[in-house]
Amino acid sequence: MTAALALGHALGIPALAIAELLPAIEAEMIRRTNEQIGKDRDRG
Predict the structure, then answer these.
(1) Using an 8 Å Cβ cutoff, are 22 and 1 in contact?
(2) 41 band by pLDDT with thresholds 50, 70 and 90
(3) Which residue in 4, 19, 34, 41 has the most C-beta neighbors within 10 A?
(4) What is the Cα–Cα distance from 21 to 4, expressed in whole angstroms?
(5) Global pTM value
(6) How far apart are CA 15 and CA 1, in angstroms?
(7) Which residue in 10, 34, 32, 30 sits closest to 22, CA to CA?
(8) How far apart are CA 41 and CA 18, in angstroms?
């Protein structure tokens, strides 16, 4: 969370907006990571 807030601050994004959006962004990152792992297993 600290890193996300620091990055948002550097980009000029309010901390409140980051706190609101971060759960959705994290969930999508996990979905995409799992999807990629599945593709790699199918190829291997």
Answers:
(1) yes
(2) very high
(3) 4
(4) 10
(5) 0.64
(6) 10
(7) 30
(8) 34
Reported as a single tens digit per residue, the pLDDT across 2-31 is 888 899 999 999 999 999 999 999 999 999
Whether the per-residue pLDDT at 36 is higher than 80: the answer is: yes
Q: Where are the alpha helices (DSSP H) in 1-44?
A: 2-11, 15-43
> What type of residue sits at position 3?
A
| 10, 12, 13, 19: CA torsion to nearest 10 | 40
Reported as half-sphere exposure (CB side, CA atoms, 13 A), residue 28 has a value of 5
CB 8 within 8 A of CB 18: yes
Phi and psi (nearest 5°) for 14?
-60, 145
